[in-house]
Fold:
Amino acid sequence: MKDLIIKNGIVYDPLNKIDGEKKEIHIKDGIIVDKVNGDAKVIDASGLIVFPGGVDPHSHIAGPKVNVGRSFRPDDKPPESNVKRTKITRSGTGFAVPSTWLIGYHYARLGYTTVAEPAMPLLEARHVHEEFLHIPLIDKLAYPLFGNNWYVLEYIRNNEIEKLAAYVAWILKATKGYAIKLVNPGGVENWAWGKNVDSLDDEVLHWGVTPRQIIESLAKVNESLELPHSVHVHCNNLGHPGNYEHSIETFKVCEKIKPISGRDRSLHITHCQFNAYGGTNWGNFESGASQIAEYVNSHKHMSIDSGNVVFTKYATTTMTGDGPWEFALHHISGTSPWGAKPGVKWVNGQVEGESGSGIVPYFFNPKVGVNAVQWAIGLELLLLIKDPYQVLMTTDHPNGGPFTTYPIIFKWLMDSKSRKDMLENTVSKKASTATSLPDIDRDYTLNELCIVTRAGSAKALGLKDRGHLGIGATGDVAIYKLDPNNYDGHAVEKAFSSAAYTIKDGEIVVKDGEITSKSMGSLICTEGKIKDSIYENTLEDIQSRWRDHYSINFNNFAVQDAYAPKVKIVNGT
Ligand SMILES: [Zn+2]
Structure:
């Protein structure tokens, strides 16, 4: 592979305090260097802007529920989602849940180079990695699910926090995972008994522990293991009117937990839009985003990602480890424009003694008041939180909408006129009366957009080698055709929909929106820091009770190295 020099582009690199400067970027052997000497390929980026490659901290791209989401919706293949094969690429299809190869192609076209799958069931981790092996061009990470796991509940009940830490370290290793994910902690275990939890102090049936204890214990373990990311939490009560108060109570649980040095946060709350609801029922449903933003603006221990809702022509496929929520959604979901009821279909999943899931097709209708308010809340969070490093942009793909719609959200963030146009002409008036969006004039700068889509997400994830263009960073670069001194929302949407160049590890993988490479990217994993003696003792303990938890043999549990031919290990310190 030839070395690369990118010349004449206007560079945005917030982590290195570069905000729209003409600057050369040199890449040697896949890594950004000060200067390439000798023969190199030159990209003339005149008239183009240069960003680090995009980093998505939360997108359901691989694993059992993603695949079920594909297979139970033969309708999710509208003609415009069909992609023909070329000499370089494979064919594929799927709107809300694209087929595996398309996921890599679509992300690369948007200029994204790293994506995290945020809900890996431990027992089915192998499936996540199998799909990763068929998603080209991007680096991938996966977060194993811990919030309803019987070993976790047992160690918390017995106050065996060291053993809990060792168990987490072992799971990260056995599943090739990256971060501690909690989904509706305690609620999904109760769902196995037809129940849920609705407060932090409800009891998890048969275990005598509470969601508060689960969050607090795993957050402490996260720091003791010195993991690169904080705990990644999908709160209880997701999707329910009035849940913003519960969300703030959850934020408070980690206020006093000190993050390891080198990381600012001890808590990440994911797709916060779905947990920022006011009102007491669907009739008086309103935004709770300003209360959430007020808390975040005065507390530095946490970050969120937005979980924006986007209106699309076709229904999306919601999918989550939060089984009881999907059951509720299955009952309340409305009708689609073609008359079918997408919500009548529902999948409920349970993975032995460790997690659950649910899947429901859903159509966000701009004329439906609740959906219009949800749309506004996602934008309010991104616009009301002052420090862009504390709010990352996601749609919780495919829940709020497929990731392919990101450039539409960029338009709304960067052009208040386009938001006003939506409020006046497209969405239900409820978005104007039940949220603060009409009063917000802020327009994101390109620098801020760069933070919420890559610099901030890389930082929150503890991926120090990306999200920036400094010396030593991975050669992941996205170049877009946009005049930084003269653009409107439409120009933003167009530019970010199709990168002029995407460069992965120093190789041009997209040129003028076309895929030019077959490279596969790497898997990124982490290792928890734990004393060998505690680790070994805990492993014995785990094995001694294995048969109470699982129907499979202990020796068949861990994902073999053959499933991850290209691995990067990233540690917290
Ligand atoms: Zn999610």
User: Anything to note?
Assistant: The pocket of zinc ion is lined by residues 58, 60, 118, 270-271, 320, 396, 399 (CB under 6 Å). The chain has 18 helices and 26 strands. The longest helix spans residues 369-384.
